[in-house]
Each structure stands twice: as structure tokens, then as C-alpha cells.
Amino acid sequence: MSRQTTHYSVIVPAFRENGNIRPLVTRIYAALRRGESPVPAEQVEIIIVDDNSRDGSVETVQDLQREGYNVRIIVRTTERGLSSAVVRGFQEAVGDNMLCMDADLQHPPEYVPAMLASMSPTYTFVLGTRYGKGVEMDKDWPLYRRIISSGARLLALPLTTASDPMSGFFGIRKESFLKARNLNSQGFKIALDLLIKAQIPPNAIAEVPFSFGVRSEGESKLTGKVMVKYLEQLAELYWHKFSILVVIFVLLVVIGFLYLVQTWLGSPSTPANHRY
Predict the structure, then answer these.
(1) Which of the listed CATH numbers 3.30.1390.20, 3.40.50.300, 3.90.550.10, 3.40.50.1100 matches domain 3-224?
(2) Which of 38, 73, 211, 238 pairs as cysteine with 48 (C-beta 3.0–4.6 A)?
(3) Residue 50 is inside which H or E element, if any?
């Protein structure tokens, strides 16, 4: 396919996800080739960003290429991490409309056409949301996963009006991505980082309701270390967005304290010979 006809890029960060790559790619293109798809399959590329899994992912992608699928793989040998893999994919993307999704099939490939079509010069960011009308949020997840997901979302509420920045299923226009500075390559939620640092206004966010699928291959990447990194990322984003407010608050506290000290020092002293 000519690079000039590629208007959409689907970025898939992966580590030891070989068992999911074939069904992911074939299901995406099957959805794009349906008559009702708003996006032509011929205008879409898929980029797998693999963290040197050495699990047969390269060979699987080569087989898919021979079968005519527009998919390629980038194998990183010196970098690790979800967010940096997404950023690398966005940097390598040909399309001006870039979508990120997980390799584990929990982001159903059948939603890809709607997600891609939602991006435009007006809507520069699209978010797959589990909180849309008619969606039973994470219905197949165990209770502890649902609690963690809801808690993570609540912690991010002061940062963005987006309903579900935790979903990991999102897209961004290239011109908005290029505006982002100092992205956190170690962060757990790159969508949240981009929403803040690319300064996406609320009226430029399109949302597509979807229900999480069930992982069929590989292992979950959710660990205690990942959750700690998320908390660290939140702290950094709160400072990035509200630092001037924090400074003002501290100054007000200091001024208030000095006023109280001055008032106390200026008040009449209690007479030394006062008797009770």
C-alpha cells in the first residue's frame, strides 16, 4: 500500500502477546471490510510495537504480511514499557489519525472503525469509554479489578472531564500529539498524559462506548509495581496542571501565618503583676 493512501494508523504495544496478534489483526481488518464500516480498510495500517518478546511475534507478522495484511512490527531491544511503546508507535505512524489499543483483545477489534472515524479536525482525541449508555462496565472482570479501575478513574477526575481516561483504548490526531511536551515514558496511562500535556480541550474529545473483552492468551500486566507507577504519574500530572495554584496556596498560607504572628506580637502584653 502506498504511504500516501494511509490515513489511519493502529498502534498496538505488545510484550509476549504472540497468541493474540493474528486474531487481533484479522478481526480489525474484517471489521474494516464490512459494508457499514465508515473507514476503508485500504487506508489503515497496523503497527505492533514489541518489547523484544522473542515469542514468535515477528514470524506471525511476517506471515500476515504475506497474506496481504498491512501490518508491520517494530522490535525494541533497548527500551521497555507501555507508554514509551505507544509513543514510539505514534512517532512511526504514517496516518494522521492514530489509534492505540491493547494486544490482549480486551479492546474489541470490532470497535476500531468507529474509533478511527470519530477523529477529525474538530475532534482531535477519541476515547473508548466503559461508562457510556448501555455499557455494563467491566462486567466480566473480578470484583478487585473493578474496584481498582474505578478507584484509578476517581483519582484522575480533577485532571480531565473525559469519562474514562483509564480504558487505554484511545486515538489522537497527529497534530495534537506533536504538541505534547515532556511525556512520561514510564507512566501507566499514556492517554491521561496526552490529554493533559497536549492540552486537549473538553469539546475536542469524542467518546465511543464499548465493553471490555476477555483476555484469551497471555498474562495480565496489572501488578503492584504498575499501580505504584500510576500513582507517581498522577502526582506528576497534578503538579503539571495545578503547580501555579499550589504556589498560590502556599503563599496564602505563609501570608496568613505572618499576619497572625504580627497580630500576636502587636497585641498588648499581659501585665506582669496581674493577680488572679
Answers:
(1) 3.90.550.10
(2) 73
(3) strand 44-50
